[in-house]
Amino acid sequence: MIALGCDHAGYKAKQEIIRYFNEHNIQYKDFGTFNEDSCDYPLFAKAVANSVTKKESDKGIILCGSGIGVSIAANKINGIRAALCYDPKLSEMARKHNDANVLCLAGRYSSFTTILDIVKIFLNTKFEGGRHQKRIEQITEIENCQKYQ
C-alpha cells in the first residue's frame, strides 16, 4: 500500500501517478488534495507520513510545487525518512543508502515522465543495509533525542 498526497501544485503529477498505479494494480490510498484549488501542503505531508509511521502504508509519495515544502514537513514526523528526488538515480540512492520511506517530488519542476521513472525506481529498490544500517540508526538516535548537546 502506498500513501499518496499533494497540494494544488502537485495535483496533475499525482493524477499521472494514480493512472500508473491503476494500470499496474498497485494499491494506494489518496490523502488529497483532490483538485487544483490552492491549499496547504503540510496537511497532506502529515497525513501521508502518519500513514507510513502507523504502518497503514508501506511507503509514501507526496508532491508540491518544488518538493521542498513537503519534504521538510514530512521529516518532522518521527520515523520518516523523506527524500526529495528530482532524478531517478537520486531515488535509487535514497532507497539503497538511506532507506527512505517517503518520496517527495516537484510537481512544477519535473516532467511526468521523469516523475514516473523516479516513482518506479523508488518502489522497486531495496535498502542495502550493511554499512548504511548504522547511519539509519544514528538518524533514529538523533530523532529520539529530547535535548541536543
Detail the topology: elements first, then pairings.
Blueprint: E1 2-6, H1 11-23, E2 28-30, H2 41-53, E3 59-64, H3 68-74, E4 82-84, H4 88-98, E5 102-106, H5 112-124, H6 131-144
Parallel strand pairs: 1-2, 1-3, 3-5, 4-5
- Percent of sequence in beta strands: 5-15%
What is the CATH homology-level superfamily? Sugar-phosphate isomerase, RpiB/LacA/LacB
Contiguous uncertain segments of 5+ residues: none
Strand and helix order: EHEHEHEHEHH
DSSP strand count: 5
Query: Numbering strands along the chain, what is their spatial order in the largest sheet?
Result: 2-1-3-5-4
- Tell me the CATH architecture: 3-Layer(aba) Sandwich
Cα separation of the termini: 38 Å
Largest sheet: 5 strands, parallel
The general outline is globular
| Count of individual domains | 1
| Count of DSSP-assigned helices | 6
Report the radius of gyration as a whole number of Å.
15 Å
Report on this model:
The protein has 149 residues and is α/β, with parallel strands linked by helices. The protein has helices at 11-23, 41-53, 68-74, 88-98, 112-124, 131-144, and strands at residues 2-6, 28-30, 59-64, 82-84, 102-106. It contains six helices and five strands; from the N terminus they run E-H-E-H-E-H-E-H-E-H-H. The mean pLDDT is 96. The chain has a five-stranded parallel β-sheet, sandwiched between helices. Helix 1 links the parallel strand 1 (2-6) and strand 2. Helix 2 packs across helix 3. It has a single domain, classed as Sugar-phosphate isomerase, RpiB/LacA/LacB (Ribose 5-phosphate Isomerase B, Chain: A).
